[in-house]
Design goal:
The protein has about 240 residues and is of the alpha/beta class. The strands form two sheets. It has a six-stranded mixed β-sheet with strand order 6-7-8-3-9-10. A four-stranded antiparallel β-sheet has the order 2-1-4-5, with helices on one face. Helix content is about 30%, strand content about 25%. The protein contains six helices and ten strands; from the N terminus they run βββαββαβαααβαβββ. It has a domain of about 170 residues: P-loop containing nucleotide triphosphate hydrolases (Rossmann fold), CATH 3.40.50.300. It comes from Streptacidiphilus monticola.
């Protein structure tokens, strides 16, 4: 499978689509110093192809969230290299990382992260407002995305009026707002029951297909592994399979 996301100029240079979307090489991340130093990642290397859903499996404390934060440009590694969509993150300053996160990466979190006072439609529209997308284009994209995640009839409801599964669907729609090349999802089913969690994972699978994006999804649920194109087992900060 080699579906390609739409290439566009979005604050960072566009590169050829032949390279993997994500390339991680010998990544280390430590916190603290001396006797209290914690080695969260120990020499992690992997690639994620374009149009692929890669699942990161591991128990709490295995390093999944640390790895996703590094790939998403939310943290800096102690050593090693990360390339996202052809860009070496170590060569990007704060403004470059901000542009990358805003324009090329969509985030989905376990706690949904929706703004309580905004409607579902308004939450989905937030990333486009930050990018100063024209109002009519923004409204059309919001409508399209809410329909994609099956919530077209819930556009005016606030998060408190939605179920957990519906809130996560809104979060996925929001992550897709600026047509990212990469979606990073950290335990997106962690607060959901098993049936709803499977439905959310199936939705992510469908989104990867329909939007042509790459997805990195951290989960500890073995029942969701069959929906991924590839599974990476993370244990004690290392990929073991």
């Amino acid at each position: 499978m080699d579906e390609h996301a739409e290439e566009r100029d979005a604050g960072v240079a566009v590169v050829g689509s032949a390279a993997p979307m994500v390339e991680v090489a010998d990544l280390h991340r430590s916190f603290g110093s001396g006797a209290g130093q914690v080695h969260a990642l120990r020499g992690v290397s992997f690639t994620a192809r374009r149009g692929e859903l890669t699942a990161l499996r591991g128990r709490s404390g295995s390093g999944k969230t640390t790895l996703l934060n590094l790939v998403g440009g939310l943290d800096r590694p102690s050593s090693g290299t990360i390339r996202v969509d052809g860009h070496d993150l170590s060569e990007l300053g704060e403004e470059g990382l901000l542009a990358l996160r805003r324009d090329r990466i969509g985030f989905v979190f376990q706690s949904f992260g929706l703004i309580p006072i905004l409607s579902a439609a308004e939450n989905v529209g937030v990333p486009m407002r930050l990018r100063r997308t024209p109002a009519r284009e923004r409204e059309e994209r919001v409508h399209e995305l809410l329909a994609l995640v099956g919530l077209a009839d819930h556009a005016d409801q606030r998060p408190g009026e939605l179920s957990g599964g519906q809130q996560q669907r809104v979060a996925i729609a929001r992550a897709l707002a600026n047509q990212p090349s990469l979606i990073i999802a950290d335990e997106p089913t962690g607060q959901l029951d098993s049936d709803t969690g499977r439905a959310i994972m199936q939705l992510l699978r469908a989104v990867v297909r329909s939007e042509g994006v790459t997805a990195l999804v951290a989960t500890h649920d073995p029942n969701l592994m069959e929906l991924a194109d590839r599974v990476l087992d993370l244990r004690d900060g290392q990929i073991v399979a």
